[in-house]
């Protein structure tokens, strides 16, 4: 297990290993290759293995110096009537899957909150 200071640091390291996935921690493209979402990239950077099984976020957090599971951050540019903030995991999924942000863009956004 490799230790990282922040979630963004771990995800940026993992993002160098595989292309971006949407909708899954890891999306297998062949028997030996896969893509990873932001959280999947962070997991792989920490554990040097594909993100499979349960408790992915909890396992990532245990390797970080900064916790993220109990925090909320604002959604960027919420529309009237939308929630202005959400859990870190919910915001990451929204940015990755709905808005199509790159893992690097998500990391930059989260770094503004010390994550």
Question: What would you note in describing this structure?
Answer:
The two termini are 19 Å apart. Helix 1 crosses helix 2. This protein has one domain. The mean pLDDT is 92. The strands form two sheets. Strands 1-2 form a two-stranded antiparallel sheet. Strands 3-4 form a two-stranded antiparallel ribbon. It has helices at 7-15, 38-47, 56-61, 88-98, 103-111; strands at residues 26-28, 34-36, 72-74, 85-87. The protein is α+β, with helices and mostly antiparallel strands and 115 residues long. A hairpin with a 5-residue loop joins strand 1 and strand 2 (34-36).
Instruction: State the shape.
Output: globular
Structural class estimated from helices and strands: alpha+beta
Measured distance between first and last alpha carbons? 19 Å
Mean pLDDT: 92
- Whole-number total of structural domains: 1
| Uncertain residue segments | none
Number of strands: 4
Amount of beta strand: 5-15%
Which value, in Å, is the CA radius of gyration?
13 Å
How many helical elements?
5
- The helix/strand series, from N terminus to C terminus, equals HEEHHEEHH
Largest beta-sheet details: 2 strands, antiparallel
What is the percent of helical residues? 25-40%
Task: State the strand order across the main sheet.
Answer: 1-2
């Amino acid at each position: 297990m490799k230790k990282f200071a922040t979630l963004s640091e771990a995800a940026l390291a993992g993002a160098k290993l595989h292309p971006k996935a949407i909708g899954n921690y890891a999306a297998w493209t062949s028997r030996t290759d896969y893509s990873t979402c932001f959280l999947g990239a962070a997991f792989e950077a920490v554990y040097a293995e594909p993100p499979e099984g349960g408790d992915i976020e909890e396992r990532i957090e245990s390797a970080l110096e900064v916790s993220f599971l109990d925090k909320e951050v604002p959604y960027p540019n919420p529309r009237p009537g939308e929630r202005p903030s959400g859990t870190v995991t919910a915001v990451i999924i929204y940015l990755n899957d709905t808005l199509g942000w790159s893992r690097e863009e998500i990391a930059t956004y989260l770094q503004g909150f010390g994550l």
